[in-house]
Specification:
With 49 residues, this protein is an alpha+beta fold. It contains 1 helix and 2 strands, in the order E-E-H.
């Protein structure tokens, strides 16, 4: 199945949402999709607050 993993940040002051990155991947099932998301969160160069 094709899934889209979206990383976003929510600003506490005004509840604003900002998309940091969006990745499309092929996963066999939900467990594999979660593994992809965890690996991407460790390897992508995303800004930190």
């Amino acid at each position: 199945m094709k899934i889209v993993i979206e990383f976003y940040r929510i600003r506490n002051v005004d509840d604003a949402h900002a998309v940091l990155d969006r990745e499309s991947v092929e996963a066999a099932d939900l467990d594999e999709a979660i593994e992809f998301a965890l690996e991407l969160s460790r390897t992508l160069d995303m800004p930190q607050p």
